[in-house]
User: What shape does this take?
Amino acid sequence: MNGPTKIRTKINFSFNYLIILYAFVMPISVSKSDDFMKILIPLWIISFEYTKILVFIKESRLFQTILLLTFFILLSYLWSTEITTTPTHFYYSDIYDYFYRYFVFFLFPIIMILTKLKKEYISLVITSFVFAMFINEIISYGIFFEFWTTPKGSPENPVPFHKNHITYSTFLGFTILLSIYKFSHIKTNYIRLLLLFFLVTMSINLFMSAGRTGQFSLFITLILLSLIYLRKNIKLIIFSFSILVLVFFIAYNNMTTFHVRVNEAINNVESIVNNKNVDTSFGTRIMAFSTIPYLMNENNILFGVGMGDKASYVSTTLKNDYPYRLENFDIHGFLHNSHLEMLVSNGLAGLLLYFSIFYFLLTIVIKDPFIKYMGYSLGIYLLCFGMVSDIFFYRAIMSIFSLFLGIIILQNQSEKEKEKLNECH
Assistant: This one.
């Protein structure tokens, strides 16, 4: 084995541990995971093996669709006309900034996992992520009980390291989904007891935060997963739904923050109905759907206005034509809906590619029951998230999406290769 080959082999071996470390760093600090990528990207380039990429491009519909959407978003900047650098529009209008964020937090982590991670390390990557969330939870409880403070957290909204309660509650909710599966399938009693404790404390932690996004996404995902896995047993479905309702009822009556946030949502609805006041958190998300007739026309319905124009186009158009005044629409050009944002920026063509990612994710053939469950959970959970926020606006959400997308695609390809080997023998 010559020198360069030996170095490449060592880097490939080390990469597995670096990915495990990345899965740990990512839920704790988005900025630290950004720094981490500055190490991983050059290492990946040094040890790049293009044949592995070609295999996934050739055989994985899910990976093909991710690449096509990436190319289409990049292409859409060519028909973006008004490039603004105002802070409210900067994330989308500046092609270098947007693609730095998109590549570092979404596309590259997927490629890195597919080309460097060995299948045997998948469980360690997932465990590393869950352990980091356990640390998040400890810090969050410390904030709640006023043992310590963090820049973003407070006893009323104990967010540990995340930028806001939206991303923290989303990470918590998905970790709960992973833990539910492990709890229901693990055979060792003391580990089951530990997982049950973790599930209870995480659930309480979720309702302690102001993050209705994670709560909503978790609730809908659990309902749909119950229908998928328990569809042949009506009694179990009714029991599962009853437990869900009971948990939310107990949280509403005992968790101050959750109680306040639910009441806010109810008041927002009453305000819309009675006073026609739609400029609220809940109102913005409901009214986003009513903006589409004002934003979409025969000139942009197929390919959209371009990613670079999205925010400024939404802001300008709705200020001029839309009968309601909403701060998020008028000032930020932000619809709080990933699906609608994709329609406006990239039209029906982009929306089709975007939804195709979820279609292939939910229908991907995987024999491993836990990874298959993870695919269902990830797809449903982030489709729900996309109904009330924008997946590609938050770096943390892109990170969690890419990490588990990469694992799911890798598992699928590993099973295909194993089948081919069995056929040869």
Observations:
- DSSP finds 19 helices and no strands in the chain.
- The chain has a mean pLDDT of 88.
- The two ends are 29 Å apart (CA to CA).
